[in-house]
Write a structure and sequence with these properties.
CATH architecture: Up-down Bundle
Mean pLDDT: 82
Distance between the termini: 40 Å
Shape: globular
Largest sheet: 2 strands, antiparallel
CATH superfamily: NCX, central ion-binding region
Oligomer: single chain
Low-confidence stretches: none
Number of domains: 1
Radius of gyration: 21 Å
Number of strands: 4
Order of helices and strands: HHHHHEHHEHHHHHHEHEHHH
Strand order of the largest sheet: 1-4
Number of helices: 17
Length: 398
Amino acid sequence: MKERLRSWTFLIAASLLCAQWLLFWAVKLTLPFPADILLPGLGVLGAAFMLTWAAELAQMEVSKGLAIALLALITVLPEYTVDIYLAWTAGKNPVYTPLATANMTGANRLLIGAGWAAVGVFYWLKSKKKEIVIAKSHRVEIFALLLATLYSFVIPMKGNIALYDSVALIAVYAVYVYKTSKAGLTEPELEGGPAELFSAKPRERRLLVNLFMFVLSGLTIFLAAKPFAEGLISGGERLGIEKFLLIQWVAPLASEAPEFIVAIIFALRMKGSEALSILVSSKVNQWTLLVGMLPIAFSLSAKSLAPMHLDARQVEELLLTSAQSLFALIVLANLRFSILEALTLFILFATQFFFTNPTFRLVYSGVYILLAVILFVVSKQNRTGLKELFTASWSGKN
């Protein structure tokens, strides 16, 4: 009885956190600082909890991989909103082009450098285990990210993002979703909470509850992301921070909050494999579908088939983002993610803020690529894992 009451309390509390922001949004009330950050932020927090329960409950209907892919897609909706808006505006005003790519590269690097690292640290703090063992069923996410990462090196080499890049990257995402949808159903491990509360209900009622959770959380995230980001940016402007840096780091920090919170919740439940797979799936979303949507939005706005041209800084930022992704993928190839690897990713990411000279972006790119090569050469486990990643993904066997 106590567990049932606790589950209802959690569900109602999360629903109210979402509802308070939907109410403020509906009445178009102008909020003063710091309420303009706090209230949409609380909405995102409530939505994140609800998404964890929705994803767990959805595993009774679809494969775990597809449930995580859906969860990841919903949690990155804020990033889509911000980046596609910037790309659309860039089609009419080229001044916005660097901002569109700044937001995208910042979001992608933040996801690995801070997000993946946070999962490793929180899992270690909770379980005292020095590494996360990734389930073989999550190879498809890693393989999709590998394909997208290898292709991503083409973009800085040619200095633009074109419509044919959209076709290639969106195709990778489509294959990824198809592969996850074909995975078999497994009995989900529901450890209390709202998901377990409704798991024994009739299927029709369970599906309605699941739909309610996904719709309410997705709508809240979609409507709270922009005000949350704008609140953080306006706060940064008060401190005199450069607009490019605000768009590259502060806005993504707001828009990435949902998947960060969801992943950390899973890590604290000692579901390290699921926590990491959520962020890998989010990275797949951002590195394929999101990047692929940018030239489409740009072309529609500009009413032209011309690509988005990149300046020298954008080329460097994209190269650095691709290099970080490559190293991270080699790290995960053996389906192990240790606390040492998590700290390495974080240190390499965090120290970049101390070196603003453009040369250091190239230096860090070289360091990431060099570490990826060294790890591939010296670690038989990672080489074997990479080979199995290809064979298992193409064959559809785990």
